[in-house]
Design a protein that fits this description.
Layout (H helix, E strand, L loop, with lengths): L7 E9 L5 E4 L6 E4 L7 H7 L7 E6 L13 E5 L14 E6 L2 E10 L3 E5 L9 E11 L3 H6 L3
């Protein structure tokens, strides 16, 4: 069965950057299962998977425009430390959700000093090209429940 819209697809993958450094992998973890054509994975990956079949193995290069988008400098903000309201002291790598004029935004703390806490709302892979080594493990028709409610 070929991968097409609304097919449940399970893949194993490793993402690397341009230098070959591993970004993430399913090695040693559960594979990724998703409903194809729903925009739940990067557009460049979805395009590369479309029409392929169980057992296929391939590598694709995904540019930022079809991956996790460009970096937006305006999503990096230095917040006065006295506005920090979390229960613990801020540390680099802390993840939290902040409320913005456009709604909630997930951010990560990237710098801390005596007067400011710098947070970044960009996706960690924004602005980066990545390489995906992919193996398609299975492709199937969704159940009625999956069609109605999605995966989960």
């Amino acid at each position: 069965m070929d991968i097409a819209d609304k097919r449940i697809t399970t893949v194993a993958f490793t993402l690397t950057d341009d230098s070959g450094a591993r970004i993430t992998t399913t090695d040693g973890h559960a594979p990724l299962t998703y409903m194809h054509g729903q925009g739940s994975i990067a557009a460049g990956l979805e395009e590369a998977l479309h029409g392929r079949s169980e057992g296929d193995r391939f590598t694709v290069v995904v540019l930022p425009e079809k991956g996790f988008g460009p970096r937006h400098p305006e999503l990096v903000q230095a917040v006065p430390r006295n506005l920090w309201t979390a229960d613990k002291e801020p540390e680099i790598g802390d993840r939290l959700q902040v409320e913005t004029a456009r709604g909630p935004l997930d951010v990560v703390v990237t710098a801390v000093d005596d007067t400011t806490v710098t947070v970044d709302g960009n996706h960690p892979l924004a602005g980066r090209t990545f390489h995906a080594d992919i193996e398609i493990l299975s492709v199937r028709v969704p159940t009625a429940q999956e069609l109605q409610f999605g995966l989960g």
